[in-house]
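Data availability (excerpt). The following record was deposited with the supplementary files.
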Amino acid sequence: MHVAAMTPAHAARIVTWCYPEPYACYDMTGAEPDTLLDPSSGYFALISGHELIGFRSFGPDGRVPGGSYDDSALDTGGGLRPDLTGRGLGRSAIETSLRFGRERFSPVAFRLTVASFNTRAQLVVGRLGFRRVGRFAASTDGREYDIFVRAERP
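Predicted structure:
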């Protein structure tokens, strides 16, 4: 598994991804492929072998409207292809993206925002050393989200 540059083919596929409830809040169907391709958006493809299995983002895209954020950590987010969720790939996907983010951006800390109901993701990030630092209701739909942070350097 590795992180790679986003291509037009990757972006076109990702914006069709729909997740079953209650995970539909992670759907990418409202995104424009050009947004995923814009280097300033911070999107990258997650690849296993030669197959697109997910995406990762670094920067403001990892923030959920309504949360309180500052510049003390690099926000990161992402998702697996819908047919691959719940199969135990989350830890490897996040570890791979954190390794990439550390090498590329050298942040002092990483920050993740996870829907409060998403216990699978919350368990994974907790096991990876993230600690919950806050909870808020999204300004878009009122859904609750938790913010997690992990320091990379003292």
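Summary of structural features: The radius of gyration is 14 Å.
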